[in-house]
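Input structure tokens:
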């Protein structure tokens, strides 16, 4: 394909299909750099991979990185997690929004570019993917109704913390009931008057068969929900007050169980801040 032909194809692709701003899909990836690789991993991801392996791709329009220092890792629950083993694993979290209706096109590009990055030696191998999944948006619950930033602003707005919550329903048929309960009852009560501005809910989708071999296939595709809580304060300031009862509340509902509740703070792009606080 000539350069002129490629340019024409780009124009054709942009001229058709969805191009709204709603985060119809997300990539949520929690990664643990191997011991001794913390600085090297942070610089590789921030200086290269965040852009070449994510933000430069079509239809991935917003992204943000988060970090869990050791004291934040020790706040995680439950002690026995189906997501992270041990529950403290995964000190970096990256979150990305993908334009609604463009998941298939984005996946073709991401598989292709990651194969190329691997061939070119631009992938840091000394890391473990603890929880990596592309996800479909299910619902967003706001504390302040129509006021304030929307979910499509969430990765650009200067939120001071994020809590990743992974909830498993008892079975595939129960997930819809669990989602309804979260949206109608639990989340509005928890958000009211709290430092959490919104909670965004996703459900995971299976990774393609030609994914990178170092990324394991997604678990809980039929039963799992992933929640991102966006906080206006450091999560340490509101952890007990806002999240202490969450795990028990889900269990008491009889609809599911919390498999991970993990707080993070935003990284500071262009720096190695917090890297020396991970262990």
């Amino acid at each position: 394909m000539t350069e002129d032909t490629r340019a024409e194809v780009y124009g054709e692709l942009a001229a058709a299909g969805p191009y709204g701003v709603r985060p119809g899909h997300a990539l949520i990836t929690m990664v643990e750099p191997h011991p001794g690789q913390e600085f090297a991993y942070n610089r590789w991801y921030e200086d290269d991979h965040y852009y070449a392996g994510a933000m430069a791709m079509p239809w991935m329009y917003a992204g943000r990185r988060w970090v869990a220092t050791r004291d934040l890792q020790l706040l995680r629950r439950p002690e026995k997690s189906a997501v992270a083993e041990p529950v403290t694993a995964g000190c970096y979290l990256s979150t990305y929004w993908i334009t609604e209706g463009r998941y298939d096109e984005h996946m073709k590009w991401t598989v292709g570019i990651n194969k190329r990055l691997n061939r070119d030696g631009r992938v840091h191998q000394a890391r473990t993917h603890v929880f990596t999944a592309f996800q479909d948006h299910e619902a967003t619950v706001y504390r302040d109704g129509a006021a304030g930033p929307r979910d499509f602003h969430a990765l650009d707005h200067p939120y001071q913390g994020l809590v990743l919550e992974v909830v498993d329903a008892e079975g595939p048929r129960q997930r819809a009931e669990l989602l309804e309960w979260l949206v109608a009852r639990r989340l509005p009560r928890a958000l009211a008057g709290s430092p959490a501005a919104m909670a965004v809910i996703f459900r995971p989708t299976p990774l393609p068969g030609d994914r990178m071999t170092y990324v394991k296939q997604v678990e809980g595709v039929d039963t799992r929900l992933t929640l991102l809580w966006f906080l206006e304060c450091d999560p340490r300031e509101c952890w007990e007050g806002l999240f202490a009862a969450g795990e028990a509340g889900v269990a008491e509902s009889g609809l599911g169980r919390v498999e991970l509740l993990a707080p993070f703070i935003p990284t500071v792009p262009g720096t190695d801040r917090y890297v020396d606080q991970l262990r």
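The two ends are 49 Å apart (CA to CA). Strands lie at 23-33, 60-67, 92-99, 127-142, 161-169, 196-204, 224-231, 256-266.
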